Each structure stands twice: as structure tokens, then as C-alpha cells.
């Protein structure tokens, strides 16, 4: 069953965040990740619980692959680039 890594990102340093994007994408792909949404325009219809800023959705073959990417040795040195240049909410969801 596929799993989806969903990230809402508020970028605070766009130049440095571009470096993060360039490094993170091939690592996600190495774990079977396929980017389905990466920024782009949004039509936010309701905001009772939260107001999204910039959404990223990466599809993985399963929950184990998504978690393996997030916890990987390859991603470990890249993750601080994101954390130092953006504020994020990250979740992994089982697909159907």
C-alpha cells in the first residue's frame, strides 16, 4: 500500500532552501519516492484547523520506505538545511 510524506513548509531563506531541494530529491527517489506535489498554487477552501503555506507530497511504495527515507543516513546531513531555513510540519500517511 503506498504511503505519502506530506510537508507544509514556510520557507524563511529561499536561496538556502533551494540547496535543500536539490539535495533531498535524489535521496527521496533512492527510497522509491515520487514527487506528486512540490509547491505550486493552492486553492485553500477551509482553514478550521490550519492554514497551509507551501505543500509537498511525495509518494512512497509503502510506509516503511517513507520512514526509511526520513531516518536515512543519506538524509541526515540534509535535514538540518531544511530546519535552518524553513519551518515545517511533516507527516507520513498510509495510502489506499
Question: Can you walk me through this structure?
Answer:
- This protein is 33% helix and 30% strand.
- With 96 residues, it is an alpha+beta fold.
- The longest helix is centred in the first third of the chain and has 17 residues, at 14-30.
- Strands 2-3-1-4 form a 4-stranded antiparallel beta sheet.
- It has 3 helices and 4 strands, in the order E-H-E-E-H-H-E.
- The protein starts with a strand and ends with a strand.
- The protein has a single domain (3-41, 54-94), classed as Alpha-Beta Plaits.
- The relative contact order is 0.36.
**Which CATH-level-2 architecture?**
2-Layer Sandwich
Helical fraction: 25-40%
**Number of helix segments?**
3
Q: Please name the CATH topology.
A: Alpha-Beta Plaits
Distance between the termini: 6 Å
What is the strand content? 25-35%
- Rounded mean pLDDT score: 97
Global Rg: 13 Å
The string of secondary-structure elements, in order, is EHEEHHE
Briefly note the structural class of the backbone. alpha+beta
In oligomeric terms, what are we looking at?
single chain
Q: Please report the total strand number as a whole number.
A: 4
- CATH classification, class level: Alpha Beta
Q: What is the 3D shape? A: globular
Sheet of most strands: 4 strands, antiparallel
Uncertain stretches? none
Record keyword descriptors for this entry.
alpha+beta, 33% helix, Alpha-Beta Plaits, 3 helices, 4-stranded antiparallel beta sheet, 96 residues
Structure summary:
By secondary structure, this protein is of the alpha+beta class.
List the SSEs and their pairings:
Blueprint: E1 3-11, H1 14-30, E2 34-38, E3 55-60, H2 63-70, H3 79-85, E4 86-94
Antiparallel strand pairs: 1-3, 1-4, 2-3
Helix pairs in contact: 1-3
Amino acid at each position: 500500500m503506498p504511503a505519502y510524506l506530506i510537508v507544509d513548509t514556510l520557507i524563511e531563506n529561499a536561496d538556502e532552501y533551494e540547496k535543500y531541494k536539490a539535495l533531498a530529491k535524489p535521496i527521496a527517489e533512492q527510497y522509491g519516492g515520487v514527487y506528486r506535489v512540490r509547491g505550486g498554487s493552492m486553492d485553500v477552501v477551509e482553514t478550521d484547523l490550519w492554514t497551509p503555506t507551501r505543500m509537498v507530497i511525495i509518494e512512497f511504495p509503502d510506509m516503511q520506505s517513507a520512514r526509511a527515507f526520513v531516518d536515512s543516513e543519506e538524509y541526515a546531513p540534509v535535514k538540518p538545511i531544511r530546519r535552518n531555513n524553513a519551518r515545517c510540519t511533516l507527516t507520513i500517511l498510509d495510502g489506499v
